[in-house]
Amino acid sequence: MEMTAVVIKEGFIELCSLLKLENMASSGGEAKQLISSGLVRVNGELESRKRRKLVPGDVVECGGRHVKIAVE
């Protein structure tokens, strides 16, 4: 499993924003659709909250990609 690190400056990033930032979704609408369709996991568990606040250490899985949140 290949994991990419995303460095954030603030204390958190919202799930929808991360999906767009990492090109897992091309738009906010697509990001919301991925989440509501059960295609996104956070820390190994299905996530249904579109505005879930991700903090350093969280791992997001979507479309075969794994992204870990890190702090600057």
How widely separated are the two ends?
A: 24 Å
**How many H/I helices?**
2
CATH arch. level architecture: Roll
Radius of gyration: 11 Å
Give the low-confidence spans.
Answer: none
Order of H and E elements: EEHHEEEEE
How many domains make up the coordinates?
Answer: 1
The side-by-side strand order for the widest beta sheet comes to 1-7-6-3-4
Largest sheet: 5 strands, mixed
Helix/sheet category: alpha+beta
- CATH topology title: Structural Genomics Hypothetical 15.5 Kd Protein In mrcA-pckA Intergenic Region, Chain A
User: What does the overall shape look like?
Assistant: globular
Can you count the beta strands? 7
Q: pLDDT average, as an integer? A: 94
The CATH fourth-level homologous superfamily: RNA-binding S4 domain
Report on the structure:
The protein has helices at residues 15-21, 28-36, and strands at residues 3-8, 13-14, 40-42, 45-46, 53-54, 59-62, 65-71. With 72 residues, the chain is an alpha+beta fold. It has one domain (3-71): RNA-binding S4 domain (Structural Genomics Hypothetical 15.5 Kd Protein In mrcA-pckA Intergenic Region, Chain A).
Quick description:
Helix content is 22%, strand content 36%. By secondary structure, it is of the alpha+beta class.
List the helices and strands and how they pair.
Elements: E1 3-8, E2 13-14, H1 15-21, H2 28-36, E3 40-42, E4 45-46, E5 53-54, E6 59-62, E7 65-71
Parallel strand pairs: 1-7
Antiparallel strand pairs: 2-5, 3-4, 3-6, 6-7
